[in-house]
């Protein structure tokens, strides 16, 4: 069937009219990879960025909705390279909490704090996979989700290969193993098993994230082919050869500093308990619980409290190692391990960024780790930067986060896929 030129023009005109275009005009554009445009314009059409540049060089399409962002900062949405959506409600955890509605609530909490993408690294079930799939099309009212499925555990190489196949068959975005003895309180995954899991993951065309604590385990797993170091080295200072190994293999390092904080901070009233930015995301009941002296006493009396103090010491090592690796050119991917009880989604991401500043990283380095580098570490070129063709996941801030990372708290607008969230 032939279509006349007139009909074709009418169809083209109708499609153009139906396209939803928004122009953010006059604000500071923090592109994501280090480039900053002080007076810029960003154009979004049907959920993707179609133009970004100095205001005097960007043509805004007729009929576009204009948003004046003069005096504001616009940056990519934050990406948590190692978080979780979990079977958690408040300070409780139970398999019955792993429901679609609960996961949606968690993803909306992440988004309300400007975290527009979460890589959930482990213990992901069917509801999580479904939400991941739904995020591949259409605008979202919550954070994007990527999943790793079940964490792979096994005692033998053959069992590890079988288990890797079982998890790979679920269709995850990445796989994960744990090579850790929890400070001597549990059995570490045997080396033949984790080596077999890494090899089989690559045979299945999947990348492998590894949970570690000790430097030598990190070195061994990366040498064997692990693709993503999902926690800080916390036992001893890293050496130059380890940094060189990470650079040579292009392996990213996710600090998860707030994971350590969560192991001991609730033995007394945490310093953030009355922070309005924290309270708005947790509700009065959880706030009451973490301030309850009786609960704090029970926490201190728990045998896990001794481990918490050892993790507290490990945090200081982690802070120094983060600075050292960053100085040596290792790519850092912001991650928090939020999701389990006491690791509060949304707020802890901001706390993580501020702790990274305490470690000595600049605001520009921190922003990069939480945007373009976090995306690159998961080989995702559709998010993480204000570049043409990428998803329009962005934040409008009332202050300049390049001056102080705490300015990221001044979130005025959150957009995911070109849709403004409430």
| CATH fold field value of the largest domain | TIM Barrel
CATH class value of the largest domain: Alpha Beta
- Range of strand content: 15-25%
- The count of strands amounts to 17
Mean pLDDT: 94
**What's the total helix number?**
15
Please tell me the CATH architecture of the largest domain by its name: Alpha-Beta Barrel
User: How is the main sheet built?
Assistant: 8 strands, mixed
- Broad structural category: alpha/beta
Terminal-residue CA separation: 46 Å
Structural features, described:
- This protein is an alpha/beta fold.
- The chain folds into 2 domains: 17-76 and 384-422, Urease, subunit C, domain 1 (Roll); 78-382, TIM Barrel (Alpha-Beta Barrel), CATH 3.20.20.140.
- The chain is built from 15 helices and 17 strands.
- Helix 4 packs parallel to helix 5.
- The longest helix is centred in the last third of the chain and has 24 residues, at 304-327.
Tag the structure with descriptive keywords.
single chain, 422 residues, alpha/beta, 8-stranded mixed sheet, 15 helices
What's this, in brief?
By secondary structure, the chain is α/β, with parallel strands linked by helices. It has helices at 5-18, 100-112, 126-134, 157-168, 191-203, 215-223, 240-249, 257-262, 276-282, 284-291, 293-301, 304-327, 347-358, 363-369, 372-377, and strands spanning 21-30, 36-45, 48-54, 65-68, 73-76, 78-83, 88-89, 92-93, 115-120, 144-147, 175-178, 208-211, 228-229, 252-253, 394-397, 411-416, 419-420. The chain is built from 15 helices and 17 strands.
